[in-house]
Amino acid sequence: MMKSLKTILTALIIVASTSAVLSTPAFAQYPPEQAIDLTVGKVQLAIDALKSGANADAVSDLIKDALDASKEINASDTVFVARTKGSNTLKNARKHLKEGSTKDAEQELDNALKAFSNLKKLL
After folding, report:
1. Residue 5 lies in a domain
2. Closest Cα to residue 86, out of 42, 122, 116?
3. Is the pLDDT of residue 93 over 90?
4. Number of structural domains, the chain?
5. Domain for residue 19, yes or no?
6. Cα–Cα distance between 55 and 89 in angstroms, integer?
């Protein structure tokens, strides 16, 4: 009984550790340059939508898409730190939209656009 319990536990540990390794961002779908371009494009879409008067929910969804795209940006630790700052700026933009402050959201989106555009310099 104890031996089979140890075997099952060992198998579970191996599966869990393998899953953790395989789910790391090292297996990104896009090269860093493409992922940056994709993210910048999605941030620009959100800015254009906000400036054209789209409703806050639609712009928030576009920002969420940009956040999701930013997760594909993988290069070095320096890029990771800068990407995280850009992502936090996008999260702030969504927060401002929920609060009804489109002016602040637009400023945060502009800052995010600059932050993600500058990531290529770090590659």
Report:
1. no
2. 116
3. yes
4. 1
5. no
6. 20
Tokens 């940009």 -> residue: 66
Q: 45-59: per-residue pLDDT in tens?
A: 999 999 999 999 999
The one-character DSSP state at 1 is -
- Residue 8 domain-assigned? no
Q: What is the CATH number of the domain that holds 67?
A: 1.20.120.660
Distance from C-alpha of 27 to C-alpha of 38, rounded to nearest angstrom? 17
Q: Place 7 in a pLDDT band, splitting at 50, 70 and 90.
A: low
Q: Which of 20, 116, 23 is nearest to 73 (CA)?
A: 116
Cα distances (Å, whole numbers) of residue 5 to 2, 11, 12, 13, 75: 5, 10, 11, 12, 41
pLDDT in tens, 15-47: 555 544 444 444 558 889 999 999 999 999 999
Range of the domain at 67: 31-122
Domain membership of residue 14 (yes or no) is: no
